[in-house]
Design brief:
With 135 residues, the protein is an all-alpha fold. It has one domain. Helix content is 66%, strand content 0%. 3% of the residues are buried. About 4% of the residues have low confidence.
Length: 135
Amino acid sequence: MSSPLNVVQMEANRRNAQQSTGPRSEAGKKISSLNALRHGLTSRVVVLPSEDLAAYGKFSDEYLASLAPETFPERQCAQTIIDTQWRLNRVRSLEESFRTHPSYIRTTMPVDWTDLRTPLRTRSTVWQRLLRSAL
């Protein structure tokens, strides 16, 4: 049987929960959906809010033109390749930024790769997953 204090606390928790319903506006929901974002490699979103959508569009158009897919399955495969390459380019950019400005990455990027002592096989696993998802 619950003690009176626990019952009082549970009631207070229920009242507080009614007030804590999370973001209500579409903009707030969009922002909060990216709360757990670190590097965006496995994100459902290809172009991150911090990236240039026009640059992705140009990249995608040029890449698609060079692949010249003719059928629907070819276009689907081409789009998967384009999206995966965009993500890989993001990683290269982050790695280059880290090499040239390690303090910049540590203070502004939501990437948890700031410790160079992390075993290479850990990072290699991310690459392998990306490559498998592209094929």
